[in-house]
Each structure stands twice: as C-alpha cells, then as structure tokens.
C-alpha cells in the first residue's frame, strides 16, 4: 500500500480517503498477485504487465475502471448493485456500500480474460 500513500494523503475528505483506502487494501489482500501501481495519477492494479483495474476519486463517487469489456460483461450486475456506469467506468456514490462480491467478480474476469494479453490495454 506504500505505492498509494501519496495519492491517499492527497484526498482531502477523510471519508472519501478512508473508503478509497479500504477498497485498495481489499484488492491488495484479495489479489496478492496483482501489482499495485500509480499511473496517470491514479491507483491501479496490473497482472503480468497488463491493466486489470483502476480507481479514481471525484466529488460524488469512487470510480472503478475495469475497461469496456469488464463493464459490458457485468453491466446488468452493476445496475442491480445500484451503481451507474459509462463505457469506461463504474461510479460508486460515497454514501453507497461497496459490493465487494461484484468487485471480486470483475477483477477475476479481467485476470482470466487477459491471461494471454501482452499489451497494457485490450486491443
């Protein structure tokens, strides 16, 4: 989690900082083989050099970016969890609970789907 320390300390709202740290810590513990890194000023996790999932903070939500394939695959589940999404990200409002079960499925999907991927992003 040291790799995210500066990012987390830059989040002014303590509740947003705590929630973000909770999610990043959960990913780190649940998926110890993923590499935590900062890129484009955002925390993300990679596997064998390929992007798996990224996070960003805004005023109203924590954004989760699993690439378009992850969002398309889980679109119905994302909506059922009470989140809205775009083609590129899922928005978890600060006052909504994090559906860690769904997050786990999204990450597992990307790990498996990108097993043979040799590029950072899907082509």
How is the largest sheet built, in terms of strand order? 1-2-3-4-6-5
Assign the CATH class: Alpha Beta
Question: Multimeric state of these chains?
Answer: single chain
Query: What is the CATH topology assignment?
Result: Aspartate Aminotransferase, domain 1
| Major β-sheet profile | 6 strands, antiparallel
Helix content class: 40-55%
User: Which ranges are low-confidence, i.e. pLDDT below 50, for 5 or more consecutive residues?
Assistant: none
Number of domains: 1
Give the termini distance in whole angstroms: 29 Å
Which structural class should the secondary elements be placed in?
Answer: alpha+beta
Strand elements, count: 6
How does CATH name the architecture?
Alpha-Beta Complex
């Amino acid at each position: 989690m040291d790799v995210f320390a500066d990012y987390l300390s830059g989040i002014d709202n303590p509740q947003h900082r705590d929630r973000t740290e909770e999610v990043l810590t959960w990913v780190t513990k649940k998926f110890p083989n993923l590499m935590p890194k900062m890129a484009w000023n955002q925390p993300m996790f990679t596997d064998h050099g390929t992007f798996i999932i990224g996070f960003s903070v805004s005023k109203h939500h924590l954004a989760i970016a699993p690439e378009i394939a992850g969002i398309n695959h889980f679109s119905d589940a994302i909506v059922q969890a009470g989140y809205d999404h775009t083609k590129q990200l899922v928005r978890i409002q600060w006052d909504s609970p994090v559906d860690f079960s769904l997050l786990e499925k999204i990450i597992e999907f990307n790990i498996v789907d990108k097993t043979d991927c040799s590029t950072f992003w899907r082509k």
